[in-house]
Amino acid sequence: MTPQDSSAFLLSLAARAPVIPVLVLEDEAKAAPLAEALVAGGLSLLEVTLRTSSALDALARMAAVPGAVVGAGTVLTPEDARAAKAAGAEFAVSPGATPSLIAACTGIGLPLLPGAATASEVMALMAAGFRFAKFFPAAQIGGAPALKSLGGPLPQMRFCPTGGITPESAPDYLSLSNVACIGGSWLAPADLLAKGDFAAIRRRAESAAALRD
Ligand SMILES: O=C(O)C(=O)C[C@H](O)[C@H](O)COP(=O)(O)O
């Protein structure tokens, strides 16, 4: 899948929900109930970060939940991309981008949401054919005002800002014309996951889903 097709596909997915929960799973047994809670709350796009030993198993279990569209996050290398695809990931998210990662995702047909933090990085992605990128780490590099400024000279590019976004700051990002959706870990924080409080996670998902009503 080319970068152009990748971005078009992911932009169509982003229209489904304003927020992509960024998930760090230490226990794959929590994967299915977590995905069910998020989907029931109205968030169908899920990103499982490849940061834990359980991540690929968790991803596979979440991908089997009806209504869930599951991608892998923290995809850094071609090996990560291949492992994610084999586990059932429908897309990959990276905090940045390298030529080898882009080539690998193109080669195996895994849609990639590459990361960028500066105008030069965004321009390099545009030159490769992308029209949709993760803006990371969003809050720390200037937040919604920085993203709005990038949209001046680079209006063709759309973004999924991620990093340091809260329920309070989310509307500032979602109001920007170059934002397709946002990502964040606040939907399923470690304490709620440890307690198995899926009802609370579902309520957080409902509030997040309502951000674009
Ligand atoms: O794992 C990745 O690939 C990342 O790029 C990092 C995540 O996007 C952030 O960890 C989001 O987490 P919060 O800032 O807590 O919302």
TrEMBL record:
KW Transport (keyword) present: no
Biochemical pathway: Carbohydrate acid metabolism; 2-dehydro-3-deoxy-D-gluconate degradation; D-glyceraldehyde 3-phosphate and pyruvate from 2-dehydro-3-deoxy-D-gluconate: step 2/2
Coiled coil regions, renumbered to chain: none
CDD domains associated with the record: KDPG_aldolase
Catalytic activity: 2-dehydro-3-deoxy-6-phospho-D-gluconate = D-glyceraldehyde 3-phosphate + pyruvate
EC number: 4.1.2.14
Database matches in Pfam families: Aldolase
Alphabetized UniProt keyword annotations: Carbohydrate metabolism, Lyase
GO MF entries: 2-dehydro-3-deoxy-phosphogluconate aldolase activity
The organism's place on the tree of life at top rank: Bacteria
Quaternary structure note: Homotrimer.
Family: Belongs to the KHG/KDPG aldolase family.
Protein name, UniProt field: 2-dehydro-3-deoxy-phosphogluconate aldolase
Species per Swiss-Prot/TrEMBL record: Falsigemmobacter faecalis
Gene, per the UniProt record: eda
